[in-house]
C-alpha cells in the first residue's frame, strides 16, 4: 500500500502542473485584464468589477503598448508602463508563469490586486463559511440518505419504495439555486413567512449573545443555505445505498445466514451492513469536497455568505489573478489529496482491498 500511495502522491505534481498550465494559457486570451480595470475606473468607464469590452488580450499576454488599452486613451504612456511593472505584466507570459509556480512551491501566493491582503490570508478568512456549508450539508445528507436507502432496499418494489424514489428524483431535478430562491421567498420574508434570516451566518448582536445563544443563532442562519445545498445530494446517496444493499442481499452468504436461523435484523446489520456501506462510507471525503466546491458559489451568492465560492466569483470578474491562480492551486492540491484519502478509506473499511494488486 505504501508504494501505491507514493505513486499517487508523485502523480499530483504533473496533474497539478497541467491544471495550472491550461488555466494560465486560457487567461492569455481573456479580454480585460486588471490594468484595464484600473484604467477604466480612472476614465469613468467602469469600476473594478465592471466588464471591459475588447482590447484586453495584450494585458493578459504581457503586452505593454498603451494604444492596446481602451481605458488608456489620453493617459501618459509612462503611467501605463508603471502599472505594468507593478502588476508584473512587463515580463513575457512564460517568465511570469515560471515565477508564479516557483513562488507557489514556496507557499508564496502573493497579494490580491484589489484587496490589499495576501491570498493565503484571504482564503483563510473566507474558508470557515464554506467549510460550515459543506460539512453540515454532507453530514445531513448521510444522516438522511443512509437510513432511507436501507429502508428502500428492504422494501424494494413496495409503495414506499416507489413514492420515495419519485420524491428524491424530483428533488434531484430541481436546480440548487432555484430551490434556494424558493426557500428565501417562503421562509425569509420574501412573500410569506419571516422565519429565517435573509443573509449572513451570524446576527449583528453576535458578540453580545451567550454561548448557547451563539450556537442557536448560528444554526438559525445556516439552516436555509444547508438545506438548499443538500437537496440534490439526497438522491445520489440514497440510491447508492439502496443499490449497494440490494447487491449484498442477493449474495450467497446472506442466504446461508438466514438458513442458520438468524433474524432479519441480525442478517441486515450484522452481515450485510459492513459490506454494503463500503462504497458509501469510503466516498465521504469525495462527497464533502463535491458539496464544498460545486454548490458554494451559487448558494453563497444567494444567501450573501462571504465564503470561498463568492470570493472566486468576484476574483474572476475583477481579473484578480493572484486570487484566481492561488485558490486554483490550493484547491487543486486539496482535490487530488482527497482522491488519495478516498482510496485509504476503502482500505480502512475493508482491509481485503489491495490497490497494488489491482494495478498489477
From TrEMBL:
Keywords: Cell inner membrane, Cell membrane, Membrane, Transmembrane, Transmembrane helix, Transport. SUPFAM superfamilies: MetI-like. The keyword ATP-binding does not apply. InterPro entries: MetI-like, MetI-like_sf. GO terms for cellular component: plasma membrane. Residues 127-346 form the ABC transmembrane type-1 domain. The chain crosses the membrane at residues 9-30, 131-150, 162-188, 218-241, 276-303, 323-349. Its main location: membrane. It is a multi-pass membrane protein. The keyword ATP-binding does not apply. It is found in: Cell inner membrane; Cell membrane. GO terms for biological process: microcin transport; transmembrane transport. It comes from the Bacteria. Belongs to the binding-protein-dependent transport system permease family. NCBIfam families: PRK15133.1. This is Microcin C transport system permease protein.
Amino acid at each position: 500500500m505504501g508504494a501505491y500511495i507514493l505513486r499517487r502522491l508523485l502523480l499530483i505534481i504533473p496533474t497539478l502542473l497541467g491544471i495550472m498550465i491550461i488555466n494560465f494559457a486560457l487567461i492569455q486570451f481573456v479580454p480585460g485584464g486588471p490594468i484595464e480595470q484600473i484604467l477604466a475606473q480612472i476614465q469613468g468607464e467602469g469600476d473594478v468589477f465592471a466588464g471591459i469590452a475588447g482590447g484586453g488580450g495584450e494585458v493578459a499576454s504581457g503586452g505593454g503598448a498603451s494604444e492596446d488599452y481602451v481605458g488608456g486613451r489620453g493617459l501618459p504612456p509612462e503611467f501605463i508602463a508603471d502599472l505594468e511593472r507593478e502588476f508584473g505584466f512587463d515580463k513575457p507570459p512564460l517568465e511570469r508563469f515560471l515565477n508564479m509556480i516557483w513562488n507557489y512551491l514556496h507557499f508564496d501566493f502573493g497579494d490580491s490586486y484589489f484587496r490589499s491582503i495576501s491570498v493565503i490570508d484571504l482564503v483563510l478568512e473566507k474558508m470557515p463559511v464554506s467549510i460550515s456549508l459543506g460539512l453540515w450539508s454532507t453530514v445531513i445528507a448521510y444522516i438522511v440518505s443512509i437510513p432511507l436507502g436501507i429502508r428502500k432496499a428492504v422494501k424494494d418494489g413496495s409503495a414506499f419504495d416507489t413514492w420515495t424514489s419519485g420524491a428524491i428524483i424530483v428533488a434531484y431535478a430541481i436546480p440548487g439555486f432555484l430551490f434556494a430562491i424558493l426557500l428565501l421567498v417562503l421562509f425569509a420574508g420574501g412573500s410569506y413567512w419571516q422565519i429565517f434570516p435573509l443573509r449572513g451566518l451570524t446576527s449583528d448582536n453576535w458578540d453580545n449573545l451567550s454561548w448557547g445563544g451563539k450556537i442557536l443563532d448560528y444554526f438559525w442562519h445556516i439552516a436555509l443555505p444547508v438545506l438548499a445545498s443538500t437537496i440534490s445530494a439526497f438522491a445520489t446517496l440514497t440510491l447508492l445505498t439502496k443499490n449497494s444493499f440490494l447487491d449484498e442481499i442477493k449474495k450467497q452468504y446472506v442466504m446461508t445466514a438466514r438458513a442458520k436461523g438468524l433474524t432479519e435484523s441480525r442478517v441486515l446489520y450484522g452481515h450485510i451492513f459492513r459490506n454494503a456501506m463500503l462504497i458509501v462510507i469510503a466516498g465521504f471525503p469525495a462527497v464533502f469536497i463535491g458539496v464544498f466546491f460545486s454548490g458554494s458559489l451559487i448558494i453563497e451568492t444567494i444567501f450573501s455568505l462571504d465564503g470561498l465560492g463568492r470570493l472566486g466569483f468576484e476574483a474572476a470578474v475583477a481579473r484578480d489573478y493572484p486570487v484566481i491562480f492561488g485558490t486554483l492551486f490550493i484547491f487543486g492540491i486539496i482535490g487530488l489529496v482527497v482522491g488519495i484519502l478516498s482510496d485509504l478509506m476503502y482500505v480502512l473499511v475493508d482491509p481485503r482491498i489491495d490497490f497494488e494488486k489491482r494495478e498489477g
